[in-house]
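Q: I'm writing up a methods section and want to include an example of the input and output format. Could you take the sequence below and give the corresponding predicted structure tokens, formatted cleanly so I can copy it straight into the document?
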Amino acid sequence: MEVENLTTTVTEFVLLGLTQSPELKYLLFLVVFLVYLMTWLSNLTIIIVVVTNSHLHVPLYFFLANLAFTDISDSSVTAVKLLWDLASHTRTISFNWCIIQIFLFHFSEGAGIFLLVVMAVDRYVAIHKPLHYLKIMNQNVCTGLVIGSWMGGFTHSIVQTALIIQLPFCGPNILDNFYCDVPQVIKLACANTDLVELLMVSNSGLLLSCIYLILLISYSIILVKIRKNITDGQHKALSTCAAQITVMSLIFIPGIFIYDRPFKKLLGDKIVSVTYSLITPMLNPIIYTLRNAEMKNAIWRLMSRILLSRRK
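A: Here is the clean output for your methods example:
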């Protein structure tokens, strides 16, 4: 029996999900659906407003629209499968789709993290080089930075999935989560994974910690610069930086909690996973909108045009 188990290849994984209670599943489906709907509506609104409003055709909002797209992508990778499982009472995912989900999740999440770095660079240039800002952050540079962010996310994700694919999986196949992710999947491998876990922590957790620390230092320097010379424009920059720091913390702190440690199960893992993959993509556009008067005004103008066109 032992020989047979070792030679059996896992073809699917069982996701335990958020609850085993049939009654709670209907309530969870409604909650997750509303969160996913809000994620789509809020992020899509930002994208449409930025694209249709010529006043927002500047680097900051170009990056913000791209960040909104990563939020939609990130949430869709996990929410769609979760909604399907809650509605159909299925709990399995094939091995191939599990790997694809891991790749897409880390691809979009990685791109979003690198975009936050780009947005910090954008604010640094805007505050320290205001007279040369538009010359430095021209269209070609902005496009290149966005492409570089997606390439960075792709590289990060490829490394993650490549390390997992080469591992043997012969059972068990139960994942205590609602989507496939590296920490849970890697523990099911039928091999010593100490070295792989170390590489995973370096590629995800350590990378997140280093980037977060660098961004905190960068924003501290920016805030000190703003405090020394407060004008109307600096007040606007301060509000924008506050929104970016809030969004950055919502992404990095849960990510560090999940990935910056040996892959041991903790009681808060599933709650943090919900926050990281479902709640944060919904909150990001709301935070940016509430902290940005220009964005709020542009949204109201768009809504007014839509209402007027319907009346006609």
